[in-house]
Design goal:
It contains three helices and five strands. It is an alpha+beta fold. It has one domain. The radius of gyration is 17 Å and the shape is elongated.
Amino acid sequence: MVKVIPLAELRAKRAFVHFNRTELTLLLDLYARRVAAGEWRDYAVDHGPDRAVFSVFHHSGEYPLFTITKLASGKGSRGGVFVVASAGGEITRSGSLSEALGALTATAAEERRPFA
């Protein structure tokens, strides 16, 4: 015999953290600018019950240059905590994606600054 399970009930059990449309727009805008500059060439998006991760790569076969992670901030909350990290560790942590991405923009400006 087949048991019918309402989709709303199933979705409630399988909740996961994800980037909303506004957040994806911010991420992909930064990604497009860095691709145009020749710095980034590939990206990946992963999501799970406790985090969503946007990873950027210089080459697809390498480890990510940077990861932007959205961590769940609590039950019933739509917001999250954003963490920007590289292989060297955490760069910044913020309640706002715009602020967190600002650290990546500042990092890129420092890398392109000519020697004094």
